[in-house]
């Protein structure tokens, strides 16, 4: 069995990064999911889970210094990974930030309208999709379930 440290080998890191699909404008949800998984696996999601610590002073404790360094490293590398996985044309439309959590929020704002359009398309498909008899009933149900799952991811749950 592979050791946990093998997850941080250069080959593993290259594999993780190459598996991220570039943000192109139509794949925000998938891109965000991939980014979250990769940053979590690489233990770099700390900056997304924890607010920025206070700036260090001469009186800062060892624990505060360690927390600040962990957050700073996580933030810096997370920003590099996010920015490197966004198409150049799209990157220019996103307000820049030195904070990975804030940068991700800016990206979400940019694609919120796209998500609404995608949700409308999915709802229309669900309402108009009928079982055609050529494929199995199971496949039809799975297709409908997939669309419902996608809508749930867009905060539009179908019950």
Summarize it:
This is UBN2_2 domain-containing protein. The protein has 159 residues and is an all-alpha fold.
What distinguishing features does this structure have?
elongated; UBN2_2 domain-containing protein; mainly alpha; 159 residues; 7 helices
Task: Describe the structure in your own words.
This is UBN2_2 domain-containing protein. It holds the Pfam family Retrotran_gag_2. The relative contact order is 0.11. Helices cover 63% and strands 0% of the residues. The model has no long low-confidence stretch (mean pLDDT 86). It is elongated. The chain is built from 7 helices and no strands. It is mostly helical and 159 residues long.
Strand residues, percent: under 5%
Distance between the termini: 42 Å
Total number of strands: 0
Uncertain stretches of 5 or more adjacent residues: none
Topology order in helix (H) and strand (E) letters = HHHHHHH
- The tally of helices reads 7
Helix content range of the residues, please? 55-70%
Q: What is Rg?
A: 20 Å
What shape does the CA trace take?
A: elongated
Task: Write down the overall mean pLDDT.
Answer: 86
Structural class: mainly alpha
- Major beta sheet summary: none
Pfam families: Retrotran_gag_2 (PF14223)
Protein name: UBN2_2 domain-containing protein
Describe the secondary-structure layout.
Blueprint: H1 10-18, H2 28-41, H3 46-49, H4 62-84, H5 88-91, H6 100-128, H7 137-153
Helix pairs in contact: 4-6, 6-7
């Amino acid at each position: 069995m592979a050791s946990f440290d093998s997850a941080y080998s250069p080959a593993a890191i290259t594999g993780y990064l190459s598996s991220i699909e570039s943000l192109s404008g139509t794949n925000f949800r998938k891109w965000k999911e991939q980014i979250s998984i990769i940053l979590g696996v690489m233990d770099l999601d700390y900056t997304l889970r924890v607010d920025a610590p206070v700036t260090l002073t001469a009186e800062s404790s060892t624990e505060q210094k360690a927390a600040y360094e962990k957050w700073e490293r996580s933030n810096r590398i997370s920003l590099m990974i996010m920015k490197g996985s966004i198409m150049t044309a799209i990157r220019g439309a996103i307000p820049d930030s030195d904070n990975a959590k804030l940068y991700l929020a800016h990206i979400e704002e940019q694609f919120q309208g796209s998500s609404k359009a995608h949700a409308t398309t999915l709802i229309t498909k669900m309402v108009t999709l009928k079982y055609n008899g050529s494929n199995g009933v199971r496949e039809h149900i799975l297709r409908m379930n997939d669309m419902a799952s996608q809508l749930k991811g867009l905060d539009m749950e179908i019950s």
